Amino acid sequence: MNLVIANTNATAFAVSRALNCTDRTEDGYYTNDTMSIIVAHVAPDMVAPNTLQDYTGGSDFTKELPFVPTKHLYHVKDKKAAERIFALMRQADEVVFASNGGCIEQGMFDMLCQSAKVGRKRSRMWLTSLTNKAINHAYRYRTGGRGLYRLARAGNAMMACDNLFEINFGGTLAQAYGKGAFPLRRPDTSILWTLCELVDSRKKFRQGDKQYTFGMTVEYAGQHVKLCPANIWDDESVVLNRVSQLRNLMGGTLSAYVIDCSDVESQELVELFTHSTLQTEAMRQLGFLPAKTNALANALYEKGFISSPLTSVAELPKRMKDSLTKRYPGAKHFPYEDNSVCRHSHGIITTGRNPIFLSSDEEWLYGFIAKRVEQVFSQKRTERELVLCVPVANLELYGSAIVPDDFYIPEGSEIEVNVTGVSHSSFSEKYPGNVVGADFLETIYEYFEMEAGDDYPVCEYADMGLALQRLIDNGFVESILGELFPTEKARLLMALTRNTDFGCVGTVMSQIGDMEKTVWDGGTLAILHKYEDWLSTQIITLITDTAIFCAKPMAHRCPKCGQVTLTEYPMVISCAHCNFSLPKQFRGYDFTAKDIDQLLTHRYTSPIYGLKGRKGRKYCDALVLDARFRLTSAPSEASILS
Question: Which positions fall inside the DNA topoisomerase type IA DNA-binding domain (predicted)?
């Protein structure tokens, strides 16, 4: 028996109909007559990574910063529903995950399988749409093996990094401003910094001096070409003098040289929507914020009207050519990619189903996508371009024009052209105006464009539109008539993080890019440890900032470097000479002055009662500084006198 697990009810229903699983089991799952396939649905967060409350026994705060658990754990939320799924897993020969999600969803499915503690073959159905044809293709060509394992590992590591950031960054600022004062996710701070710096740079804008140039229009065989020099001038009188000379040639002929006359790719070529371009264009043309676009696109996908919106590629596989050509005759000229290139996702298209029972906003977005699909399949992909060079007045003027497909002149030919017009113009760098939301979102997506895993579906960590939406919802950014303005709350956050790398777009890009490359190369654990070390350094910089927290020098010597350079802060004791730091709370226990003195002097403590375990129960243990000068429990064989 094959068990197919979907992460939404709509997906489970569509898969069951495509696989002819129209019967129901006692637990309400879909199956067929022979019980060879069972289709089940589980909530996306049935198994989720542990939160701060899980690590601290229910507390919303921790002074143990930077907080890096020795092992990243996860827990089952709905145990009754999980037990029913686990029972099916024990009976199954193969467990199949059906979803249009990326590595995060695959990682959560992997945690579900690990919680079941049953060794069964695992595979994945890559759902590009919820049509019967797409579902049957995904089931027939489901994938598994090491690649799927690495994808899940990368997803688990991504969730661990996001969890660490929320606990440490949010917990640090909560000590000074209260819980929930700065509800941010990993890429949010860098996007906010980019927006603030862009706004500030535009405030400092100074209009440049004017520059001048001229142009000439010529005609040959009914084709008009506008020519311009490669030079520009600061002196308008020079340009006016040139123009007066050229006007004497009006109505006459000049010799021109054909540089090129060949087919080129159309300059106004449009592509199918991807996740990022759909958000950007819907924001620009429909006025929809990213969260609204995501919700509407997901609703259209689950109703079977469009393909999966979680895609980063605009190409289509060859296997779709015949079906699309029946609906769009111009689709036969579309440059399809090999099926192996678009295995996991492809450009957003309509499925051909009659779009009924849609809300007004869904109708707007569906029509927007359908119009783009028709435009892509009906557009002319190549055009013939004529490029000319005309020597005149000790200058060479260059220009090009689009000509009919049957128009051809050999390259290097000398022809006679008629002068039909002369003009001059001036230009200068103009004030760019306020930051337009759609343009800013497009720029951010260009910054965060990743090279690894291009054809995998888009995950939440790569959804920059969702990050911008969080900044708007949490009061860091105001969106007024499509333009973005950082608030005073954003300026405060910039001041607080000025000495850290949280606002560096390049750093966040590098971290996400390194993690995505593990899908192909492995090495997830090393990348995760690298991020933990980086985050610890940034949090120590933040909690030792005297502009936020008070500080008091200490007389003790640093146990790592031996210098008298220790400073006590509300949450940590830090050395100004080396990178040593000692949290003032460990496993829910606040250190006393005696405990701190023992750790700094002898590198161990007397047995301490009040440490909390994973389930919140108190226990007694002695603590030591290990070889890396980090706090840990004393070895059981150690002899420590109380």
Answer: 264-494
Q: Is 19 helix (H, G, I), strand (E, B) or coil?
A: coil
Give the integer Cα–Cα distance in Å for 541 and 499: 7
Q: Using alpha carbons only, what angle is made at residue 321 by residues 316 and 326, rounded to the nearest 5 degrees?
A: 130
Tokens of 343: 């295995």
Closest CA to 191 of 538, 400, 443: 443
* Interatomic CA distance for residues 214 and 228, integer angstroms: 6
What DSSP character marks residue 520?
Answer: H
User: Tokens for 321?
Assistant: 């050519």
| Range with the poorest average pLDDT among 62-71, 82-91, 318-327 | 62-71
DSSP letter at 86 equals H
Do 148 and 12 share a domain, yes or no? yes
- Specify the range with the lowest mean pLDDT, choosing from 65-74, 164-173, 400-409: 65-74
Q: What pTM does this model have?
A: 0.85
Amino acid at 375: Q
Residue 26 and residue 133 in one domain:
yes
Judge whether 620 lies within some domain.
yes
State the pLDDT at residue 636: 54
124 or 61: whose pLDDT is higher?
124
Return the bridge partners of 253, or none. Answer: 418
Same domain, 20 and 101: yes
Same structural domain, 362 and 503: no
Looking at the structure of the chain, the number of domains it has is 5
Q: CB of 258 within 8 A of CB of 409?
A: yes
Taking the C-alpha atoms of residue 335 and residue 269, their distance in angstroms, rounded to an integer, is 12
Residues in the chain: 642
Judge whether 170 lies within some domain: no
What CATH code is carried by the domain that includes residue 15? 3.40.50.140
> Which domain-ending residue is among 484, 512, 543?
543
- 300 shares its domain with 315: yes
Residue-wise pLDDT for 373-432, tens only, equals: 999 999 988 889 999 999 987 889 999 999 888 888 999 999 999 999 999 898 887 777
Sequence-separated (6 or more) residues with CB below 8 Å from residue 630: none
Segments forming the whole domain that contains residue 31: 2-161
> What's the alpha-carbon Rg for the chain, to the nearest Å?
32
Beta carbons within 10 angstroms of residue 414's beta carbon: 8
Pair (130, 251) in one structural domain: no
Tell me the CATH number at 348: 1.10.290.10
What is the β-pairing status of strands 23-24 and 30-31? antiparallel
Residue 598 sits in the same domain as residue 510: no
How far is Cα of residue 407 from the mean position of the Cα atoms in its chain?
46
Strand partners, 422: 216
Judged by average pLDDT, the poorest of 220-224, 230-234, 580-584, 634-638 is 634-638
Q: Strand, coil or helix: what is 90?
A: helix
State which H helix or E strand residue 524 sits in.
Answer: helix 524-543
CA neighbours within 13 Å on the CB side: how many for 240? 3
Nearest to 226, CA basis, from 236, 235, 216, 234: 216
Report d(CA 161, CA 318) in Å as an integer. Answer: 38
Q: What is the reported pLDDT for 637?
A: 44
Phi-psi group of 121: left, alpha or beta (phi > 0 → left; psi -120 to 50 → alpha; rest → beta): beta
CATH number at residue 467: 1.10.460.10
pLDDT in tens, 192-205: 999 999 999 988 87
Tell me how far the alpha carbon of residue 4 is from its chain's centroid: 28
Which of 523, 543, 563 is the C-terminal boundary of a domain? 543
